[in-house]
Each structure stands twice: as structure tokens, then as C-alpha cells.
Amino acid sequence: MHLPSPYGYIRAVHLDFDDAVARLEQALAEEGFGVLCRIDLQAKLKEKLGVEFPRYIQLGACNPRLAEQALRHDLAIGLLLPCPAVVYQADGRIFLGAVDAVRRLTAGAASPDPALEALARDINLHLQRAIDRAADARP
Asked: Is the peptide bond before 82 cis (omega within 30 degrees of 0)?
């Protein structure tokens, strides 16, 4: 089930947390994304603030072909890379999500660039397929 979010595409899954992370990383790879960084927010919040927080992993995903196209369009777009994808636990459930690249790449633009919007739609297509593939994978 896809959940509405102003930030991106999110799906609840019936998977173990670690399995969800592994499946999402694999599905991102199948869509041409490498994971450049993996941030364990639960551990960082515990380490830095001493607070308890549910499990939450953020993956910095980058599709080199799409990133190169975006950077050729505007070098400053590197400020918005890589594309975040997440696996998190809330209310006893596990969720997979990925950023809405259209919103991220065009936010605040007085007049959005049509070429950049088209590229962002393509990025969204790949990210959403990765989320769906990870969510629908069979054991």
C-alpha cells in the first residue's frame, strides 16, 4: 500500500527490518543506483543526543547516468544529490520510502525548467520501481 507523503513515495511492508534494508539496496541496484552512504539515524541520535528512537536507516542513492545528466544541466544541483531513500519503523510497522525528485529538484523555482522536471520524473520512476520491487519481493 502506497502512503501519501509530501516528501516522496512511501510503502508499508511486511518484512523484517534488516531484510527490508537489504531488499531496498538490491532493488536500487537493479534500477542503476549505487548506495553512496548509509546512515543509521537511530544509532546517531542515541550517540549524539542520548535519545531512544525507532530503527531508521537512510540510504544516499545515486544513479550515475541520471546524476551526470542533472549536473550537466546545472552544476549547483549537486547540492541536492544523492537521492535519499529510507527504511524506518513506526507503530510496529516497517516502511520503505524514496524522495520525490520532482519536488526536490524544482522546489522554490520561480519557473521550473522543463528539462529538469522531465529528468526528475524519470528519477521518480526508477526510485518508485525500486521501492515497489523491494516491497513486493518474495522470500
From this structure: yes
State how far the Cα of 106 lies from the Cα of 1, in Å rounded to an integer: 27
Strand partners, 76: none
What is this structure's pTM? 0.92
Instruction: State the Cα–Cα distance between residues 63 and 75, nearest whole angstrom.
Output: 16
The residue segments making up the domain with residue 54 are 2-136
**What CATH number does residue 103 fall under?**
3.30.310.70
Domain count, the chain: 1
Judge whether 73 and 112 are in contact, CB under 8 Å. Answer: no
Cβ contact 35:21 at 8 Å: no
Please report the DSSP string for 34-101 in residue order.
EEEEEEEHHHHHHHHH------EEEEEEE-HHHHHHHHHH-GGGGGG-SEEEEEEEETTEEEEEEE-H
Cell output for 24: 531496498
State pLDDT tens for residues 51-88.
999 999 999 999 999 999 999 988 999 999 999 999 99
CA angle at residue 27 from 25 to 32, to 5 degrees? 95
